[in-house]
Amino acid sequence: MATHQAKSKASPDVEEEDDFHDAFDVEPIAEGDMDLDTALSEAKLAINYFFNNKFYEARSLLRPWAHTSMYHSVGNCVFAFLEAMLTFEHQHISEASEALKLCLHVCNSHRKKSSITESIGKTFKRSNYDQYTDMEAHAELCSAEALLLKAMLTFVEDETLTSLIKGGMKIRTCFNSYKECNNILNQRNWQNESSKIHFESGVRMGMGTFNLMISLLPGRVIKLLEFIGFSGNKQVGMQDLVAGVRMSGIRQVLCVMTLLGYHLIVCYVLSHQEGDLQFCDEMLNDQLQMYPEGVWFLFFKGRLEFMKGNLDDSLYWYKKSWRSQDVWPQFHHLCFWELLWVNCLKLDWREATMFATYLVERSKWSRTIYTYQKAVIMMMINPNEISKTDLDTIEQLMRDAPKYKQRIAGKSLPMEKFAVKKTERFFAQQRQLTLPCIELMYLWNTFKILGKHFTIGDNILKLIEKALNDINLKSNVSKYDADNKALILLLKGACLRQMKSPLHSMKQVSSLVCCLCKCLEAVISLNKEIKEDMYIVPYAIVEMGLLYADQGQKENAIAALEDAKKNYTGYSLESRLHFRIHTALTELKGKHEYVTSAAD
């Protein structure tokens, strides 16, 4: 049992190095150790507290033993890491960094000690994992988890190219650590079944997440990662994570969170695919029974209803999540972001403006994007209802947005760069932009929801058709006419592609497809006339490719996607489109790189 009489120790002075210490380089912590079963039991209780919004109770349980118990230390790091990510404040980032140094020290003190001779011997023969105690095996896993958090924190600690490289190398170290844990899982003779289940749930979460995330990256990035030892397979990753959900291990809820994040956010933001909403529904029903007021699962429930197109239901769950806790007000910002876009789809521009204002005033993530978004939402307000004060506010927001632009590793964030260009266009076009809020909906991939209920898509389509009619009736010629018309046609085509629901008759679908093709072909024909919005044509070609895919024309779909991928470059939001192209081509070609599963 835990030695509760042990003296509380100060944080060890662990120096930052390019590479992490080997296990045998760290002096063990001799006093205050907690046995593994007790540590797992208390960690499980802390998880229960955490997901029921009892953050103080969870942290109070973990912090006293963070200097000696690896599970308490990892849990303490998760708190510090989340606080750093939610606030982006230097103090919290520094505290998280120190907590992670301590955690790695604690984990290393419990890892299997190897002599120099034994370490050299590992190069030539397979390790005998039966020589590992349960504590030593779990120390490897906790170390891998801390390495991952440390690597991710590196990207925000110092926004330079050097930090990006260091972060990438640390992720590689972490990936190799998880592979070693996978070997321990499969090659060790486990005597304690409970210990094995907890260990396996962690391996499946780690390996599953790596496989899933790497598989989503564009091909050229994957080739680079494979060169330095990474590989990813979506199917294997999904299998591991689902297996982790089905077991009662301590990291079961983290597997749930990963799958919910993938199916409800990643799929809809980075690809053309739909998430498995039925599976998400099943997981959320189970989790909300255990954590009925948990901020995370209330949020995901709101996201699930949003992706189903149930806008009023999504508002209910997002607001419930927002109001469920005040310990981390930064989490409210995630809810505000979602509430903003739900209200945009409801065409409630005033309500959307309110949440946009909250983000501008309270969030530090990207004030450039928030400021631009608030301006373009206000521009959607009915001209008969908009006031002089509103117009002055819009103009000031457009002037302010570029002031907050960030640079990371010497480069601007793509969406911030896009927003700044649009503010310049606003003033170049006599304080006008063409459907700027609908354009953002499209770029954030919110258009996927337009096909869920006909009225949602039809309301957006009416706005697009009005803009198209206005530009066709326009008498005076301006420099950006081709850009604006191409944008409207792209938005109309993308909207129609989402609206060709199976609920429509074959005649209706045929008519929609015909209209859609004409829109996208018209966009492509304007290619040479477009002055600035060069992204529109490759995006239109991808829409055409996805239309071919929807109709079962596989070869035409692949040809269009390859055309957009290979023949267009240097346009805004290019990487964002390449994510969508990659997932579509992977699905069409059936290519899946292989990596070992935790089950093998």
Automatic annotation (TrEMBL):
Pfam families: Iml2-TPR_39. SUPFAM superfamilies: TPR-like. This is Tetratricopeptide repeat protein 39B. It comes from Pseudolycoriella hygida.
